Amino acid sequence: MKNKELIIFDFDYTLAKTIESIWVWSPRGTRLYKNKPYIPVHPSMLSKQKIGDDEEINDDSFKEFYSLNVNRSKPIKLTNFLLNYYLGMPEEYDVYILTARPESAKEDIMCFLKDHVADLTNLNFIGLQNSKPQAKIDIIKNILLENNYLHMSLYEDNDYMINNISQQIEIPVSKYHIKSLGKELRISCYE
Q: What would the pLDDT profile of 86-126 be if each residue is shown by its tens digit?
């Protein structure tokens, strides 16, 4: 058993406010990709609205997430402070960024973080290229199987992750739900 705690941070809207959008393929789309119309939808809005019967989301819908617009992304100061804290004590914490973005976004994300985090040496990064929350939970299960942690803390903006992680893993989890409300940030803790 490790005497360390596993710390998992999501990236988008947990560590940074980002601008990338999901492309919803729609006959009412105002933009084109390979002559196919789409509507760019911010991820936070997608969960609040349904897509139409004649609309779809597929692998090409996530093209903007293969990189990060470093110059237009904004740090979420509180969670970056916490990331710095955990990374400063590698003997106590194993820290991961677990993002739906693909591994190809790692270089941009690390470039962004280097301006806000003192030392990235002990930061682990996993890019899933999968937006399904269950994919994140499955990766967390694998990390836990390989390392036998006694406790885990999860920093996440996704409701599904917050509501379902504790039922699917066997160790205690502290869940920190990050909600951006305009210029205000709310972090709710659930044990």
A: 999 999 999 999 999 999 999 999 999 999 998 999 999 99
Instruction: Fill in the DSSP letter of residue 65.
Output: G
Vertex 154 angle, CA 118 and 58, to 5°: 100
Confirm if 153 and 93 have CB atoms less than 8 A apart. Answer: no
Q: Enumerate the β-bridge partners of residue 88.
A: none
Full DSSP string of 84-114? HHHHT-TTTEEEEEEESSBGGGHHHHHHHHT
Domain ranges of the chain: 5-17+71-190, 22-66
Per-residue confidence (pLDDT) for residue 184, from 0 to 100: 79
> At 118, which helix (H) or strand (E)?
none
Q: How far apart are CA 16 and CA 94, in angstroms?
A: 20
Task: Please give the model's pTM, rounded to 2 decimal places.
Answer: 0.88
Q: Does domain 5-17+71-190 have CATH number 3.40.50.300?
A: no
pLDDT tens digits for range 22-57: 999 999 999 999 999 999 988 777 666 788 899 998
Question: What letter would DSSP give residue 12?
Answer: B
Classify strands 74-75 and 151-156 as parallel, antiparallel or unpaired: unpaired
What are 163's strand-pairing partners? none
Element of type H or E holding 157 = none
- The separation between the first and the last C-alpha atoms of the chain, rounded to the nearest angstrom, is 21
